[in-house]
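Quick check before the chapter quiz. The format below is the same one you will see on the exam, so make sure you can read both the input and the output lines.
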Amino acid sequence: MNHSFDLAAAPGHLIRRAHQISVAIFNDHLAAVDVTPVQFAILNALQDTPGVDQITLAKRVAFDPATSGSVIGRLETKGWIERRADDVDRRRKLLVLTPQGLQALTGMTAAVAAIQTEIVSPLEPDEQAQFMHLLRRLVAGHEAS
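Here is the expected output.
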């Protein structure tokens, strides 16, 4: 008799479910702002490194450079980022936060911190620390390969 694959014991399935839960919690908290986790990551990265090009920005937030164009376009439409020509190479476009983008980012930062706490809230504090340690190792190990 064949038995089905045990998804409850599959890391890939559990990581996918954890991601779904994470995005749902994010959306619950920030639905009024109409921002996605990837958009927040891009805004946050631009605050840390203003004047970066799209490909470099996509790498910083671990997002596909081809898909990042549409995300950046939506942020540009909201008036939160703008493209500026590079002083050295006028064909190269650099991305910066607008004052409205900085204000939006500042307004959502506390909510995003609360979201992170809620995501791991089913775990005890020592389990949260262990989980984060192992998650960082898992990601770093795959990024190094």
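If your answer matched, good. The mean pLDDT is 93.
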